[in-house]
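New to this. Please check this fold:
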Amino acid sequence: MTPERFQDLIASLTASLEGQPLDAALAERLNREHPAGSPVFEAIFEACRQAVAAGWMCSRENDGIRWGRVIKQGAATHGFSVDVVDMKDLAGPHHGHPHGEIDMVMPLQADGTPGGEARFDGQGAGWKVYGPGSAHRPTVSGGRALVLYLLPQGAIEFSRAASA
């Protein structure tokens, strides 16, 4: 899996998301049209696993979270940026979503193969959508998961750490 092939794969998904409101109805639609086990979901999941193994995805690490922005927002991905994190039983930094966030949750077993019981903010394998103006402290519980974030216009705002 190359970054270029990954971008083409994601672009086929983001084309169907362009201009859609980021809300519960979109999460329902994604979980209905592209559920875990579906061809689109599994193709992206496998591509992420290959890219992590190749070392160009989730190439940074901080506080037990492997992460990285793999595609900057732009016309090729219909205005979405793509970030992917690899987390196991921990909470990440609090942040807000000025334009919302679409999350693809991909649980992994202990050996790194697909499966397992990990949940991202309560969502198992599948899709979670946060609307514009929302915020959270992203949390993976029950194991390890890859989580792909689609951010409209690449917008994310990390909260300031409390002063000591």
Notes: The longest strand covers residues 139-152. The chain has a mean pLDDT of 94. The chain is about 25% helix and 35% strand. Strands lie at 60-62, 65-71, 80-91, 95-97, 101-108, 119-120, 126-130, 134-136, 139-152, 157-158.
